[in-house]
Fold this sequence. Notes:
Three copies of one chain form a homotrimer. Chain A has 313 residues and is mostly beta strands. In chain A, 11% of the residues lie in helices and 27% in strands. The first copy, chain A, has an eleven-stranded mixed beta sheet. The first copy, chain A, has a nine-stranded parallel beta sheet with strand order 5-8-11-14-19-22-25-28-31, with no helix packed on it. The first copy, chain A, has a nine-stranded parallel beta sheet with strand order 7-10-13-16-21-24-27-30-33, with no helix packed on it. The longest helix of chain A has 12 residues. The N and C termini of chain A lie far apart (66 Å). The interface between A and B is large, with 39 and 41 residues.
Amino acid sequence: MKLKDLAKNLGLDCQSEIEITGLNTLKDAKKNNLSFFENKKYLDELKHTKAAAVLVHEEFSSFVPKGVLALVDNEPYLKLAIASKFFAPKHIEDEGEEPQIGDKTKIMPNAYVGKNTKIGNNCILMSGVFIGDNVSIGDSCVMYPNSVIYRDCVLGNSCIIQAGAVIGSDGFGFAHTKEGKHIKIYQNGNVILENDIEIGANTTVDRAAFGSTLIKSGTKIDNLVQIGHNCVLDENVIITGQVGIAGSTTLGRNIVIGGQSGIAGHLKVAAFTTIAARSGLTKSVTKSGQTYAGFPARLRKEWLKTLAKISRL
Amino acid sequence: MKLKDLAKNLGLDCQSEIEITGLNTLKDAKKNNLSFFENKKYLDELKHTKAAAVLVHEEFSSFVPKGVLALVDNEPYLKLAIASKFFAPKHIEDEGEEPQIGDKTKIMPNAYVGKNTKIGNNCILMSGVFIGDNVSIGDSCVMYPNSVIYRDCVLGNSCIIQAGAVIGSDGFGFAHTKEGKHIKIYQNGNVILENDIEIGANTTVDRAAFGSTLIKSGTKIDNLVQIGHNCVLDENVIITGQVGIAGSTTLGRNIVIGGQSGIAGHLKVAAFTTIAARSGLTKSVTKSGQTYAGFPARLRKEWLKTLAKISRL
Amino acid sequence: MKLKDLAKNLGLDCQSEIEITGLNTLKDAKKNNLSFFENKKYLDELKHTKAAAVLVHEEFSSFVPKGVLALVDNEPYLKLAIASKFFAPKHIEDEGEEPQIGDKTKIMPNAYVGKNTKIGNNCILMSGVFIGDNVSIGDSCVMYPNSVIYRDCVLGNSCIIQAGAVIGSDGFGFAHTKEGKHIKIYQNGNVILENDIEIGANTTVDRAAFGSTLIKSGTKIDNLVQIGHNCVLDENVIITGQVGIAGSTTLGRNIVIGGQSGIAGHLKVAAFTTIAARSGLTKSVTKSGQTYAGFPARLRKEWLKTLAKISRL
């Protein structure tokens, strides 16, 4: 879609003939992407973006780098939401190639595999499994009954997806109008699971708004866990039941998270951190190897001290 | 069913020939309904009920208004539970009309649509979707794989139901015998979703015991959320991941609820309230536009003060 | 499998010709089982085990009783994980008998019933239901759409399984290598639900590592609850929405657990205990009939006192 046509759809004035192929964050945007600036936290990324154009409030338009077009608007995030719909893939492809299924892969009755999808060798797809269009799955994966992989997602080898788990559902993203309505930001990214990953029953892993939600090899996730859009989980993370991780948070390798804990969005947590059960982590953790507890979470030894003081009141 | 026959089934003595068509709350009961009084909080509603008859403990039978029959019993709630089974609809209708499917609505393989059900135009029902009997769905709805709509529910236009979400499952209601057994209160109501609603992956919205669980237009709900029976959510509410709302709670418009929070049952929360993540709201909120946090939840500024004091101990 | 062959696969030296038929805990192991000792809490059980052989660290090998072989290793739990794979049943049986379906049991389209499975009379299996191989289900059970029963599980009579619930998914068990990898402990047990049990929508009940996760008659579980592997729930327990119970915990009869609470693993909770909503129980409860609240949970009256003191700071 030409930028001038997209701008017109957004009620903005821009005559550029550049072909826009998608939306992306300031940091990851390529020369044919439209990006946006909304959160001051990302000002430095604005200054260095390689996007074709940026939706930006007038106040910050002077920070848009040379060679990048500034699309000035009072509500850049709302305009982004409206733009996102133009780049949303179809729910179901009308056309496409029949799926390629590897050797010794078993597909049980009532399972569905979408168009242009490739599944490796020695996999098992049990009844009621749904694999969307344009998915890639490696070898030796087990998909338990009624688990769902949305379109465009990628699984490596030896992944185990327990029953009812959902990989690639829409991230929860909305822009808000002055009248209080919520405008969906279409989630045009995907989920990538590397190798040797286990996903628990009825756990949900949301697809990215742009780019990928990424779970690296060896990570194990228990039941009823929520992984928000654009999270990155490094290798060998352990996440136990009913944990929730909000969007765009990055977890280092070998982190262990106890049951029913929550981690806020846009945080970075250092490798080898342990989060005790029922904790709520609200800040990034930069030093590795420590144990956090409580809500708001602090170092576990401090939390224990506080509990002792409270009990002495 | 004649009231005299129903009474006989409950071990009660009543000779009334009135035809009872269903059960309902004191407030909503119509002239052919049986109601019950159990919680003193609703004494005023007892005094003004328009039910045909009320199951009531002897102590309160004098408050039953003229023209309404008092069915006196020591365990009115238990009798209600027993009565509820007589009004439960069939799990599956044996007979009924073939579903009516609108123009350009796509139904993928392995989806099921029940009897007497109507689906509008331009909808997509992906594989494994279940739509029960006597359901009504508007135009332009998207049902992702393996999502489930139980019988008798109603969806408006432009609703998005992510994978594995369940709309209309039984509310959690039981009466208890002296011996400690739990007798199911059949959940004979439904769920109504108005327009432009999104329901997250593996989220559950329970059907009402009587009447409807109601979610109004523009409300957006994230993954793994639980909405209890008989809740009413006004327009444009935002509920993020893993929140739980217990039964019969009413939320005003444009409320925002952070992740993993809980709201107790039978509360009323004023419009434009914000509930911070991991809060537990135990009391109604009457003033709109405030932010609550912590557990038990209080005004966020007070909660922050308390946290500061605790850290200074 | 002969013990000498199993030992060879684990890199251990043992020439015993005993036929090992499975793995089990020290307490429950029979004369053809291999067991393991990892947690000092179970030293007494080590001394009295009836296993054929025990994987044990050298430090504790002297406690292995006479007539039981000690398989000495620095990482007994890791060796157990490796051994578990040899006893894992197939995901799907290649051969077996057609399922036996009782009188007046209705099976809707797109439901799947596995080999060697028996289903009693007057049951309803709605669309998308999956019943694995070698399952036994009694009479008058209702399986709502897309609910899943993994292989080898047992349900009694009059159970209600709401939509999307998963019974028998793998428990979350891993041994850890020095390099930080997680090795799956195959979950070779099952789940047993006795009679008159209700399981809420999208709730998950994990199968045991060895033996059974057991839920006794009359227990009622709400939506989005997680029951860990090897838990035992006695009769008439009430568990409301989004509760999580970690593995190997035992609950006495008629316990009531409020919404969003959590119970740590390996605890015993006395009958008639009440756990208030959003509590986190971290210790066993030996006296019955008390109410606990808060996190870490203590007697509710003490928790209320503490809250009062904090508010007076």
